[in-house]
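Recap slide: tRNA dimethylallyltransferase, sequence and predicted structure.
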Amino acid sequence: MERLIVIIGPTAVGKTRVSIDLAKKINTQIISGDSMLVYKGMDIGTAKPDLDERSGIMHHLIDILDPCEEFNVVDFQNYAQRLITQINSNGLIPILAGGTGLYIRALLEGYQFNQAPSDENLRQKLARMAEQHGNQYLHDMLAQVQPQTAVRLHVNDLRRIIRALEVYHLSGEAVSQDKAAPNRLLYDAVVVGLTMERAALYDRINRRVDLMLEQGLVDEVSRLLHKGVPPDCQAMQGIGYKQIIEHLIAGKDLLTATENVKQATRNFAKRQLTFYRSMPYIAWYNIDEFDNYNNLMEIIYNNVAGKFCLR
């Protein structure tokens, strides 16, 4: 089996720093498992590590697509599988770092997603219904025909709600994935989970959003819009971008938009932690329980070194 190290955890917990420091220690490369880092020109709102922060470590799946291009879990699986094979063939153990839980789990457990047909006219019709009646209206429609799918999707996750309704109306099936065996990993992997006390995490999220605004998030979103990136495309519906678009286009005041970014990010972190509960193979490390960062890194390194005989 190919070897793999995975660093996951909720947004803002510190995955980037840990993955880079570990990569330097064992001389390897990093594969991003974040669905937003693939987009060029979307740097501040995604907390993308810049070249200095990357410290000369090779990073993959960063800045590979234009913002108007779509990227989904199947695309990620295809890219990541090739990279894992390539890096292993060079005698290195790749580090997969990211917080998009479905992407990570789909890769590790080998999800086979159904390839349902699509219908652009139906999607547009459903989108108009959402505009006229609100997101809750479509969410209620989905709950009537696919209650299990509706439970998994937040009422504001309009894109996935529309896709689920589209798949159901075209095929009579739910958007689903098939696994050969639950929780059986396709890789010889160490899966490191970083976490911290909820209040501390939320405080870190709030401070990071404030920093994004100081670094020029509004200008970044404005620049993307002026380049012709549609405000309703997949990438621009990401947390941070969607709320700033509401400020720039709909006239919502910046203070309210900023608070909405913070709330959406905190909610996202909570959903991430809930999702990770379905992955029992994660070895969790509570950052608050360590005296300092170096102690945390030493324990993580020892775990990895013991697994792969790196001593």
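DSSP finds 13 helices and eight strands in the chain.
The two ends are 20 Å apart (CA to CA).
(End of recap.)
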